[in-house]
Write a structure and sequence with these properties.
The structure is a single chain. The chain has about 350 residues and is α/β, with parallel strands linked by helices. It has a domain of about 230 residues: Rossmann fold (3-Layer(aba) Sandwich). Helix content is about 40%, strand content about 15%. β5, α5 and β6 form a beta-alpha-beta unit.
């Protein structure tokens, strides 16, 4: 396997590369990343020591460069994670989400279609030898009420520019499978958390606010519910789907951990007070409710029965275990936080 991971310097991508490095069944692991504000080589220290690891600084919007990487490295498998992913940013500036998430995915699909399916291509191979794994989100399904779960057959109903762009890329991947016979699998995951998450998302924002003893912002009434998935659980699920998933199929990946935002914030406050008493305690007093996000979906929840039934995967982490490890990681890695924040400003 010559595996291309797109977005490998980001949060999930860097954890995935650490998870996969050293596997004997991967001859070459190519990390393609544009190193935008959320992608940092600081997430990948130690990776370069592996002989089968290659880094390519390439933007998936650059079609010629994407084609070059696929050809030059004789790519046989793709794990496509590269995306603009922050909902707030998509509301204030949707253009990058359209160009990266939709056009970038199109460029990657075209590159592998030509390489894998063209009769004259030296990279042509059977569907058992080639696989394009598109990594998506549960946000494409829209918002749930107080009950029910997203399944693989839930109709798409995206409510933000981010989720609309991801839904569009999902449909492109599906179309390339049905129209051209491209060997694909797709996954839709719930909210990830864990080490190396850029400090603009909920959990690292809360931790960093508590360390700085500044107000902890909570949107609306704080009762929006998400299903939380520890990032290393997600990485193992991605590998199982890439290597064992049914060609053309979709799998939902969830953590079986539904939490209201305010409950998460309160839990993090208590953990910081326990693990870092030097910050003064009484962290819950810093919670501040702010104006709700535009179009804020009320609840997401994933039914992950299919991947458990078909591939035997289930999450190893409870939220309580994972969030404790995450808080401890951020407390112990403040130099990393400062480094990536400084790189963003630069």
């Amino acid at each position: 396997m010559n595996l291309l991971v797109t977005g490998g310097a980001g949060f999930i991508g860097s954890n995935l590369i650490h998870h996969l490095l050293g596997r004997s069944d991967i001859a070459k692991l190519v990390n393609l990343d544009a190193l935008t504000y959320a992608g940092h080589l600081a997430n990948l220290r130690g990776a370069e020591a592996h002989a089968n690891y290659v880094f390519e600084r390439v933007d998936i919007r650059d079609k010629a460069e994407v084609v070059r990487v696929v050809r030059q490295h004789t790519i046989t498998h793709v794990l496509h994670l590269a995306a603009e992913s922050h909902v707030d940013r998509s509301i204030s500036g949707p253009g990058d989400f359209i160009s990266t998430n939709i056009v970038g995915t199109f460029n990657l699909l075209e590159a592998v279609r030509d390489a894998w399916l063209s009769p004259s291509s030296e990279l042509r191979g059977s569907s058992a030898e080639r696989r394009f794994h598109h990594v998506s989100t549960d946000e494409v399904f829209g918002s749930l009420g107080a009950t029910g779960y997203f399944t693989e057959t839930t109709p798409y109903a995206p409510n933000s520019p981010y989720s609309a762009s991801k839904a569009s890329s999902d449909l492109l991947v599906r179309a390339y499978h049905h129209t051209y016979g491209l060997p694909v699998v797709m996954t839709n995951c719930s909210n990830n958390y864990g080490p190396f998450q850029f400090p603009e998302k909920l959990i690292p924002v809360v931790i960093q606010s508590l360390i700085a003893r500044r107000a902890v912002p909570v949107y609306g009434d704080g009762l929006n519910v998400r299903d939380w998935l520890f990032v290393t659980d997600h990485c193992e699920a991605l590998w199982q789907v890439l290597t064992r998933g049914q060609n053309g199929d979709t799998y939902n990946i969830g953590g079986h951990n539904e939490w209201a935002n305010i409950c998460i914030v309160e839990l993090i406050c208590d953990l910081v007070d326990e693990l870092a008493p030097q910050f003064g305690g009484n962290s819950r007093q810093l919670i501040t409710f702010v104006k709700d996000r535009a179009g804020h979906d009320r609840r997401y929840a994933i039914d992950a029965a299919k991947i458990e039934r078909d591939l035997g995967w289930k999450p190893a982490y409870t939220f309580e275990k994972g969030i404790r490890e995450t808080v401890r990681w951020y407390l112990d890695h403040q130099p990393w936080v400062e480094e990536v924040k400084a790189a963003k400003k630069g």
